Amino acid sequence: MTIAAASPVQSRLGPPAIAAGPTSHAARWNSLKTKASASAVVDIRTHISNIDRVLQKPAAPSVFPSSNTSTAYEDAAGDASKISAARTTGVRWFDSLKISKLFGSAAATTEENYSPRSLAHLHRLLSDSPRPSPKSSIASRWRTIHGADGWSGLLDPLDENLRRELVRYGDLVQAAYHAFYANPNSSSSSTPPTVALPDRSYRVTRSLFATSSVAVPHWLAAASAAATAPTWMTQQSSFIGFVAVCDNEREIARMGRRDIVVALRGTATAPEWVDNFRSSLHPISAGEKVSTGFWSLYKTPGGSTPDAPASLSSAVVDEVRRLVEKYRGEELSITITGHSLGGALALLAADELVEEIADAPPIAVVTFGGPRVGNRGFAERVEGKGVKVLRVVNAHDFVTRVPGVLPGSGGGDDDGWWGSHLLEGYAHVGTELRVDNRASPYLRPDADPAFCHDLEAYLHLVDGFNGSGLPFRANAKRSLARLMSQVRPNMKAIYVSRSRSGRFDPVERARGVHQGCLASPSG
User: Fold this and answer.
1) What's the burial of 278, exposed, middle or buried (CB within 10 Å: 0-12/13-18/19+)?
2) In whole angstroms, what is the distance from residue 306 CA to residue 291 CA?
3) Checking DSSP bridges between strand 237-246 and strand 2-3, what pairing results, if any?
4) SS3 for 349?
5) How confident is residue 522, by pLDDT bands cut at 50, 70 and 90?
6) Mind listing the pLDDT tens digit for each residue in 364-406?
7) What pLDDT score was predicted for residue 490?
8) Hey, which bits of 46-173 come out as E strands?
């Protein structure tokens, strides 16, 4: 496993030493530091005034950075109140199971002062046009950005083109969350939920479902029948993501290839949570083992009826193979992306696609807050097949440090967590891009664990990350309103107070559409 970001000691001392040779990275590092120093000279009163003015604008809420996609999402997703109701009911039901207490509670907000530089960043985020940054052509180096060299030299400092690609893949995972919460009861391949993509260059070609092999406990089924628990919390098959392909010729030319994407959400239902706890190691070949729960969700079919969804494994392989054959002869890439549980399943999918698709295009996996999936043998197996894996990790996200979503003591042939995991050991795969929620000037340094694992928080941090020891990016584009809509206690007190005084309520403005976007307390 390669750790790309600098160590904490190195971060305190300054940028890492750069070998002699091409000077582009060193020059960029110095340029970033110079710009950061220049932005520190700010008139605080001017920025307070600007913030007030921006917050009082009666602007319509925007789901995605591009204003022309928010309307498309609202039209496609249907009644936004269903998203909010499903989300709220699910969270309340989780509270009754005390699962939320595992994440801790947000501490009381305290007043904190902003530096002039932080106020400058805040003003830019609030006042910038909602349009995303212009995309430059990556056609000549797409393989490098796609991980051909293990992202060597691109992570610290973070290459701006790679940053855009990472945020885009994260937004595709957010679209999977949106679609699930818009229609959480969809459990059949014949009634897939509508998926509205934030990037219109891509087109969804197949919905994906995951099925748990764990029988729903009697008391849980009774609660669902009595309407004290939502039915979608107990169903064994649920929409978990989609396969999409880029079919915009202009974007294909910019990227240098046609990209096939598999996007997978994190945990959302009770059966999925149960599988997360099944953390015994399941052998898939000699010396190569993976989590029993992850393997079950990946391989279990939805049933024997004609409209029952196929297993996630067969659905992904069949659809990606079909697309590869359809576009055979073109320059192609396969990107599999997921958050939390979705990141774990993404690794299993990548491992299988290499074997099942003849002459497969380059395969890259991009995960956000993903747990360990298997033992060292499995990690070596994936890396040995040439699959490139980039794990985006928040330094304070505990999910990335456990073998499953939470460590548990299995049953049956499970030797227990201490016996199985310490003896055989779980291991991460690939390269790590480490971000830190304490580096953001807009977030509380003591943000709670659920927030540290939240996908929107991840995308906020990636969008603002420059490099180890460097300040948060001054021209970050991602909206803070979306982040604040569910995690207000984790935001800096001064931002909360300014938004309230400016009659700006991100919860009301983001109600419905944003509710399915954030992954907490799912994982």
Assistant:
1) buried
2) 29
3) unpaired
4) helix
5) very low
6) 999 999 999 999 999 999 999 999 999 999 999 999 988 744 3
7) 81
8) none
Amino acid 500: pLDDT: 59
Closest CA to 124 of 510, 394, 475: 475
Catalytic residue among 199, 259, 397, 454: 397
CA angle 255, 259, 261 (to 5 degrees): 135
Q: What is the dihedral of CA 178, 86, 272, 176, to 10 degrees?
A: -10
Identify whether 397 is a catalytic site residue.
yes
Q: Looking at the DSSP assignment, which residues form a beta bridge with residue 363?
A: 334
Q: The tokens of 145 are what?
A: 């950005």
- The answer to whether residue 340 is catalytic is yes
Q: Which of 276, 186, 288, 295 is nearest to 237 (CA)?
A: 186
Active-site annotation holds for 62: no
Name the active-site residue from 212, 237, 340, 520. 340
Residues 6+ apart with CB under 8 A from 286: none
Query: Tokens 């891509």 appear where?
Result: 202
Q: CA 128 to CA 147: how far, in whole Å?
A: 31
Give percent of the chain with pLDDT exceeding 90: 46
| Most confident of the following: 43-57, 112-126, 162-176 | 162-176
Six-digit token pair at 159? 């290459």
The band of 58, judged by pLDDT with boundaries at 50, 70 and 90, is: very low
* Fold of the 26-509 domain: Rossmann fold (3.40.50)
Residue 329 scores a pLDDT above 60: yes
